[in-house]
Amino acid sequence: MNLILLGAPGSGKGTQAKQIAKRYKFPHISTGDILRQAITEGNALGKQAEGSMKTGELVPDKIILGLIEERLQQKDCKAGAIFDGFPRTILQADGLEALLKKVNRRLDICLSLEVSDERVVQRLSSRRICGGCGKDYNLISNPPPKDNRCAVCGSEIIQRTDDQEETIRSRLAVYRRQTRPLQEYYSGRGLLHIVDGDGAPDEVLKKLCRLIDDHPKEPARN
Length: 222
Ligand code: AMP
Known about the structure:
The strands form 2 sheets. Strands 2-3-1-4-8 form a 5-stranded parallel beta sheet, sandwiched between helices. It has a 3-stranded antiparallel beta sheet with strand order 6-5-7. It has a domain at 2-27 and 74-115 and 172-214: Rossmann fold. The chain is α/β, with parallel strands linked by helices. Strand 5 (127-130) and strand 6 form a beta hairpin. The protein contains 9 helices and 8 strands. Bound molecules: adenosine monophosphate. The site of adenosine monophosphate has 17 residues, from helix 2 and helix 3.
């Protein structure tokens, strides 16, 4: 199954995608995580992406489609994948469709998480992540250990540079302008389900899993 989790920054896509990936054993493909890793490594991709990421703008479609094409060629994606933070533009959605078609696959379902802007700002300004393994923390709902070291890997816990209030607002504007039109795109293809993302993570996960489980199963395609 190939599945997209759509939603504004802070809608809970990442948290939910990790849980869904674990439960259904799909690889979790987060373009944001791939780009942050590239920046940490200081490689060419990281250098190309860093400027846009700092200001909350989108990284160019061509770069994103290149990294997705490479990722989809890896063996673990053979039976499908869960896309988190991708696609973010119509051009990326068209590109994904073409890439899947090339390997005789297609997208099965697009789940779009809806949350209010105020909730997004509240969630993201209190979000912290581990600078080593990327584990999520939140100053209100899931505070980091007192020594500010990750409970999993011991690295320092940091605030993402794009989680400052001003950048959060511009990321929301970018979402509305460039990504939200994808709801119409996928609704037109009969693939869209809109899910209220405001509740507790476990409740939201239940709703998402119900939609995935109810999705008609198809025989595996080669
Ligand atoms: P995320 O972790 O998904 O919130 O992404 C963080 C930042 O990475 C975004 O604000 C963009 O600058 C960049 N980014 C991640 N995914 C994409 C994408 N599919 N297209 C363009 N830019 C992206």
